[in-house]
Amino acid sequence: MILGVIADDFTGATDVASMLVRAGMHTVQVLGVPDGGLPQADAVVIALKTRTVAPDEAVAQSLEALAALRTAGAKQVYFKYCSTFDSTPKGNIGPVTDALMAALGTDFTIACPAFPENGRTVFRGHLFVGDALLSDSGMRHHPLTPMTDANLVRVLQAQTAHAVGLLRHDALDGGVPAVRERITQLRAEGVKIAVADAVSNAHLLTLADACADLPLLTAGSGVALGLPPAYAQRGWFTPNANAATLERLNGPSAVVSGSCSEATNAQVAQWQTAGRTALLIDPLALHEGRQTASTVLAQATAALAQGPVLVYATAAPESVRAVQAALGVQAAGALVEHALAHIAHGLVACGVRRLVVAGGETSGAVVQALGVQQLRIGAPICPGVPWTQAHLPGQGGTVQLALKSGNFGGVDFFAQALRQAGVDL
Fold first, then answer.
1. Residue 272: how many CB atoms within 10 A of its CB?
2. How far apart are CA 126 and CA 66, in angstroms?
3. Where along the chain do its domains lie?
4. How many helices (H) and strands (E) are present in the chain, helices listed first?
5. Where would a tag sit more exposed on the chain, N or C end, judged by fewer CB atoms within 10 A?
6. Number of CB atoms found within 10 A of residue 166's CB
């Protein structure tokens, strides 16, 4: 193994795995730390669900994943978080980074959530989503990790006792030697974690090459795009042009959406505008017993005869706040996740073989309900979202999953994904 990745949610794990496969690395994603050791591959991505748990729990799970990766011989470790730096003043990006640095015995790493292909850029330490600062984007309304400050140096410094500095764009413009020189200066100044600017893929390639020998990287998925070329240049592996090839599957298809991001709201609206079947999960109705997951599953199963069906709990920010006020933030989220996971499991049991899932928390709940332990990574549908393939334990079948981060994809993403998988819409 060359690279071992610890991802803080399931969609983020497939996101970074997609970057590696795209550049020719044989990559396998596992869901949690398996009991029997890790599979053999150029890169292994361990998908955790630690973004919004208590910091102590996030640290404990991340250290368990690190131990497994080190046992398997990973040359470099990569802590992957969201390209919108989803976190709270207490973590979990800072606490996990601190713990991994201590365990690896390193005194320096970078932090770079930039993913320019999806409109996430970092300039002078400030994170932009498209043309807007993070604090002016839809992320300010996130129900669990509202991001109201775009200054990543300040955000990260609130989460760690280590000194946080800035690796600016002008150093990246100077190429690999300039980046390494600036890192040397930062270390001499006592900086332990450097937020790195990146406004283009060229910046990511430079950053990856300059940092490919560090024990630990922390980043979104963008930096991973530059690591395979850097590894190949060092003679560590030979890129494989067929790394992303998956087989074609037949059978019904469906979409399950729990994300309430602006992007996913638009995708749900587009699906409905196209006249396709869409069934709404109402958290308050679930709570009061006026709706059940089993009833919605029966409706969805019947609708499959007419084509792909969407089951969604996606809603506008004001509706989400109203539900959270009535039920509590954690209870509302758990109620929706459980319902959507039950429905997804039932759809697959009824023969669905291509399933699109929108939302990191929803994706985690769905793959756990399906009992999936390992994902083979296929070609990207859009930047950061690949098709994946999994064997269903005990069911003797195979399913393909597209696990989409809430903020990713264009308005027609659901249909685009299904068409790429061979579905006739």
1. 14
2. 29
3. 3-233, 253-420
4. 15, 18
5. C
6. 19
For domain 253-420, give the CATH number: 3.40.980.20
Which DSSP letter does residue 276 get?
Answer: -
Q: How far apart are CA 405 and CA 10, in angstroms?
A: 9
Radius of gyration of the chain (CA): 21
Which residues contact residue 342 at a Cβ distance below 8 angstroms, ignoring those fewer than 6 apart? 293, 294, 297, 369
Judge contact between 366 and 397, C-beta under 8 A: no
Does position 131 have pLDDT exceeding 90, yes or no?
A: yes
CATH homologous superfamily, domain 3-233: Putative sugar-binding, N-terminal domain (3.40.50.10840)
Q: Which two tokens stand for residue 274?
A: 């196209």
Q: Give 61's contacts (C-beta < 8 A, 6+ positions apart).
A: 33, 48, 50, 53
Write out the DSSP string of 62-103.
HHHHHHHHHHTT-SEEEEE--TT---BTTBSHHHHHHHHHHH
What's the token pair of residue 349?
Answer: 């049991």
Query: What pairs with residue 76 in β-bridges?
Result: 3
Residues 6+ apart with CB under 8 A from 347: 252, 254, 256, 297, 300, 301, 304, 311, 355
* Measured CA angle at 193 (ends 191, 199), to 5 deg: 115
Q: Structure pTM?
A: 0.81
